[in-house]
Amino acid sequence: MYESRKKRRERLWTIAKGTAEHPLCNLCHLPIFTTDRWDESHFPVPKSFGGKATGIAHTLCNRRHGQQVVWPLLAKADRIRARHIGADGPGMGPRAMACGRRSRLRKTIAGRIVERLTLQQKLLSAGVIDPAAIAAAMKPEIED
Ligand SMILES: [Zn+2]
């Protein structure tokens, strides 16, 4: 059902006021007078995090809360999510760092530059896997 902005604000004011003379700001807990500017405020869960509960707050309190709490929190959540899904993180720049984890070369402790081994090469050199088993696995099967 459509509710006009005016009706919605009147309803919010009435709910926030309750039986008191003036409604309280849900951020600073000071009274909101009829001469004060006020906004609908999503607190404690911001709307950008799916918060549905609303109250009313001074416009200045609500904007300050948005700038100092909500936006930094949202930016951090975006950074953490990007890192979690592997879209961003260390070594994910446009170019592979010289001898970094994405480079085909590596630098030894002694300072020499050597070719980076694959996992298979490392396991072969350590004797963990048998070269004959790899050769058998790579050989295409011929059916009669
Ligand atoms: Zn306030």
Give a description of the structure.
The protein folds into two domains: 80 residues; 34 residues, no CATH class. A hairpin with a 5-residue loop joins strand 3 and strand 4. The protein starts with a helix and ends in a 6-residue tail after the last helix. It is elongated. The chain has four helices and four strands. Strands 1-2 form a two-stranded antiparallel sheet. Strands 3-4 form a two-stranded antiparallel sheet. It is of the alpha+beta class and 144 residues long. The longest helix has 26 residues. It binds zinc ion. Zinc ion binds next to strand 2.
Low-confidence runs: none
Would you tell me the structural class of the helices and strands? alpha+beta
Main β sheet profile: 2 strands, antiparallel
Shape: elongated
- How many discrete domains? 2
Determine the mean pLDDT.
91
Q: What is the tally of helical segments?
A: 4
What structural keywords apply?
38% helix, binds zinc ion, two-stranded antiparallel ribbon, elongated, alpha+beta, 4 helices, 144 residues
Secondary-structure topology with pairs:
Elements: H1 5-17, E1 38-42, E2 54-58, H2 59-84, E3 105-107, E4 113-115, H3 119-126, H4 131-138
Antiparallel strand pairs: 1-2, 3-4
Zinc ion binds next to β2.
